[in-house]
Amino acid sequence: MNRLAYLLVPVLLGLAGCTAAAEPDRPAAPAARPERPSPFSDCAALTTAPASAAETPTGEAGETPTGKAGDRLPELTLSCFTGGVPVALRDVKGPAVINVWASWCPPCRKELPAFQRLHERAAGRFQVIGVNSRDSRGGAQSIGEDFGVRFPMLVDQGDAFEHALGRNAFPLTVFVDAAGRIRHTDSTGALDDARLAELLRTHLGVDVAA
Questions:
Q1: Are 145 and 39 in contact, with CB atoms under 8 Å apart?
Q2: Distances in whole angstroms, Cα of residue 146 to Cα of each of 9, 131, 138, 142, 166
Q3: Which of 2, 30, 129, 163 is the 20 to 30 Å CA partner of 114?
Q4: pTM (2 decimals)?
């Protein structure tokens, strides 16, 4: 019996080896898809005054959405699309043009290229800031890529900014002076280069080419 057992051991080991060799290799788990880089600029510079900020009007401002002339931006903190430290709106340094938009809003998509051109013409005199509201990250990302939008983008996942301003409109554009006071809000629809230049001149005292 002992001799028979010794003879069977190599046979059993051989069978085990064949069985192991016949088992196919398991496919490796697919690598996680890298996140696409943000098309928008970082928000760190929003709390630094523009290098050559223009003097803005000091007289009476028009009525703001909250009903009081010259209101400051609301006490609200929003995340930056690119990550990093969230931005308190009260810390944003003007002059600034803040555009509230969403990828599902046709007038917003229509006017975004004009805001990008305005950003390129700013020349350190004012800031152009986006607030992406009630939107998906993927939708905002795709629009930013397709339209070549490069200015800093804050994210308002609900509608906290509009609610604080007492408005419920898309698109919405807020003109803020160097002291952080709201000089004008516009919700008349898609703005073009000429209209933006007119609003900047009227409410912030800044001349830009249309």
A1: yes
A2: 69, 18, 12, 6, 31
A3: 163
A4: 0.78
Alpha-carbon distance of 49 to 28, in angstroms, equals: 51
Q: List the one residue out of 190, 189, 185, 156 whose CA is nearest residue 173.
A: 185
Instruction: Kindly report whether the peptide bond that precedes residue 24 is cis, defined as omega within 30 degrees of 0.
Output: no
Distance (Å, whole) CA 144 – CA 138: 10
Residue 107 has which token pair?
């007038």
pLDDT in tens, the chain (210 residues): 555 444 444 444 444 443 344 444 555 554 444 567 888 999 999 999 998 775 555 544 444 444 344 799 999 999 999 999 999 999 999 999 999 999 999 999 999 999 999 999 999 999 999 999 999 999 999 999 999 999 999 999 888 999 999 998 899 999 999 999 999 999 999 999 999 999 999 999 999 987
